[in-house]
Amino acid sequence: MAHPELRAEVARRRTFAIISHPDAGKTTLTEKLLLYGGAIRQAGSVKARKAARHATSDWMEIEKQRGISVTSSAMQFDYNGFRINILDTPGHQDFSEDTYRTLVAADSAVMLIDNAKGVEEQTIKLFKVCRLRSIPIFTFINKMDRTGRDPFELMEDIESVLGIRSCPVNWPIGIHGDFKGVYHRDTRLIELYSGGDHGQGQVNVETVSIDDPDCPDKIGQSYYDKLIEDIELLDVAGDEFDMEKILAGQLTPMFFGSATNNFGVEPFLNRFLSYTKSPTPRVAEGVGPIDPDDEKFTGFIFKIQANMNPAHRDRLAFMRVCSGVFEKGMTVWHSSTNSKVKLAQPQTFMAQEHESVETAYPGDIIGLFDPGIFRLGDTICTGSPVRYSGIPLFAPEFFCRVSPEDSMKRKQFLKGINQLSQEGAIQTFKRPNIGREEMIAGVVGVLQMDVLEYRLKSEYGVDIIRENLPFRFVRWVVETPKPLEKLRLTSTTAIAEDRVGRPVLMFENEWSIRLAGENNEGLVLAETADRMTADEME
Ligand code: G4P
Q1: Which of the listed residues 18, 28, 182 should we mutate to test ligand 1's pocket, taking the one with most ligand atoms within 8 A of CB?
Q2: What's residue 44's pLDDT?
Q3: Which strand ranges, in their side-by-side order, compose the sheet holding 181-184?
Q4: C-alpha dist (Å) from residue 530 to 96, 394, 478
Q5: Tell me, what DSSP letter sits at residue 478?
Q6: Consecutive 10-residue averages of pLDDT for the chain (538 residues)
Q7: Are the CB atoms for 75 and 86 separated by under 8 Å?
Q8: DSSP code of 161?
Q9: Cβ(142) to ligand 1 under 6 A?
Q10: By alpha-carbon position, which residue is closest to atom 36 of ligand 1?
Q11: Alpha-carbon span 2 to 173, nearest angstrom
């Protein structure tokens, strides 16, 4: 592969995730994007699958319906010369640590917000992970066809809750459900909205310049006056559009529109694609950044999907290509086994079906058949071995004390629990000082507990007893001014250690976390920790 070709393929790639709270309109927006790209022909296909998936809160049903290929895990399509990869961030019952890990494979994020709700809980969590990686975040305020909050109030909400300044690229016209359209600050054009019917159809869009003498008539004098006032205020008091800050994740460009009515979606997509980054260099340990244009192929595993069918133990490992060209059947070096492996049966993901992949470029997501060798964060590459920094552990939010029903099966139980936690399905903790041996399983999404129970039974033949614990937060202790037992903590805070023996504090509420900080000067806590492999533990 000649260098210029690789460079061109990298330049046209955009790999991103949509972060939002359930019901903000992620499925609807994704579907509209896929429609533009011609990846689906009919509105409703993504929604139908989602409906099937969420009609049940039973985890086995969810797994059965989506199967091992998980066609929605990553969607690839072409639009205006761009090759777009959208990473799915499961958000309903299947919200889990995988949702966070997926963000590690994205180059940017679209933050979708319901105009009536503002910033919601799950968005905050996902935003934090994006922040950690300093990736650009583009805000789309959705459901503008409906009554919602004042746009200035939404800007304030984003700043006060998330701590990021926003810069509106367009601005809505109309109040209290009487939505007229949006004004694009870059072109000074107003797109007028009419005929929206909360359906699949596209609205009629008429364009008028704000400088056109007919403009006040077209949008109504009072709305025109309000618009002029708003944009003057934005020009004077708002943040300037600053590409450098946007790309560093310090400023979020803000757009308004309506996904169901297809209003403001395409102008958003066009600007998003031109502003955001193509795949950027990733840092390899001891080597430094590796350029995506580098001819050496590198990639890393960010998600492993176990097959829930007991007859098929095979798994699917999701890999992001970071540099060079991936070719089917290629032999690569694999970090955690420190040996060469041949990558057979790669799959790429389309909106409706997965296809076998012949070649892939930086930014692309590939599903690899995994006979059980891959671990989260593994690097694979050609040429001399390199290792990308691993995927961190993210703080679980649900905790259970788990033990085998039959104490004779303790050995299998421990083996299973250890393997599943190494694989990233759960995390484990222990409280060393409670006087009896215990095993605490921690998960980000409560459904992961069902996965644990099911897999321990089907793969290790162990039935378990689960006992919910009241903790909701775990924090790794990075620095402490004194031994943990001597810290001033609330009575409900527990001292524990993670799988590799690192000290953690477990809290029932955020208030206790705050007090721990206030009452113990020099105590430094972290929401994530390095994932350590078995080799590093030894
Ligand atoms: P999610 O994936 O983020 O969970 O959200 P989803 O797209 O499923 O949208 C959640 C609900 O919000 C859906 O309504 C959807 O139609 C609606 N919605 C999405 N975008 C807009 C918008 O721009 N304007 C308005 N008014 N509604 C929007 P539903 O009643 O749950 O489903 P349906 O009956 O519409 O299928």
Answers
A1: 28
A2: 57
A3: 170-173, 181-184, 189-194, 204-209
A4: 18, 9, 11
A5: E
A6: 83 96 92 79 57 53 48 79 90 82 95 97 94 95 93 96 97 86 94 69 80 92 94 92 95 95 91 94 92 95 76 78 92 91 68 65 90 89 91 94 93 92 90 80 91 89 96 97 95 94 96 96 95 59
A7: yes
A8: I
A9: yes
A10: 47
A11: 50
Closest Cα to residue 399, out of 466, 453, 346?
Answer: 466
3-state SS assignment for residue 367: strand
Distance CA 83, CA 81 (A): 7
State the Cα–Cα distance between residues 97 and 395, nearest whole angstrom. Answer: 9
Does ligand 1 have an atom closer than 6 angstroms to the CB of 26? yes
Q: CA torsion sign, 213 to 216 to 217 to 219?
A: positive
Q: Which atom of ligand 1 is nearest to the CA of 198?
A: 26
Strands (E), 8-122: 13-19, 74-79, 82-87, 108-114
What is the number of the ligand 1 atom nearest to the C-alpha of 30?
Answer: 7
Which of ligand 1's atoms lies nearest the C-alpha of 91? 4
Is the CB of residue 371 less than 8 Å from the CB of residue 337?
Answer: no
Tell me the CA–centroid distance for residue 46 and ligand 1, in Å.
12
CA distance 82 to 102: 21
- Cα angle 288, 535, 99 (rounded to 5 degrees) comes to 65
Distance separating alpha carbons of residues 267 and 259, to the nearest angstrom: 12
22 in contact with ligand 1, CB cutoff 6 A: yes
- Closest ligand 1 atom to Cα of 47: 8
Domains of the chain by range and CATH? 4-275 (3.40.50.300), 282-381 (3.40.50.300), 393-537 (3.30.70.3280)
- pLDDT, residue 350, reads 46
Q: What is the pLDDT of residue 507?
A: 98
Tokens linked to 464: 């378990």
Q: How far is the CA of 267 from the centre of ligand 1 (A)?
A: 20
Quote the tokens at residue 203: 């609205």
Q: Which two tokens stand for residue 294?
A: 């580098």
How far, in Å, CA of 459 to CA of 461, rounded?
6
Task: State how far the Cα of 529 lies from the Cα of 428, in Å rounded to an integer.
Answer: 13
H or E stretch covering 455: helix 447-460
Q: Of the candidates 202, 324, 407, which has an alpha carbon nearest to the alpha carbon of residue 332?
A: 324
